[in-house]
Structures are given as C-alpha cells and as structure tokens.
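S1.2 Input.
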Amino acid sequence: MLNERAGISVDLARRLERAGVSTARFWLSLQTNYELAEAGPAPKVERLQVESPA
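S1.3 Output.
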C-alpha cells in the first residue's frame, strides 16, 4: 500500500475505518482514483445505435 506494492482492498479499508482512520468509502475512493489515473485516458467508444421495434 505505502510502497505501491499492494492496493487497498475492501477488507483493509474496513479495518482502517474500524481503527478510526477515516471511512472505508474514503480509502476505496482513493484506490479507485489511483487505478483510473494509472489506466490513462479512456478509449474512444462510439455510441450504440439501437433500432426501434417496428
């Protein structure tokens, strides 16, 4: 976690919350933001065209 070798799991986030170190939601949000930043920009995706039933 501190050396970027392990991420924040749900279990760890809950344990940190029980220890009084912010909320589990906070820790999971940090992990999600980190993973999104590491992934880079989102790929371009074309919108699906859904045909209406006749």
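S1.4 Remarks. The radius of gyration is 18 Å.
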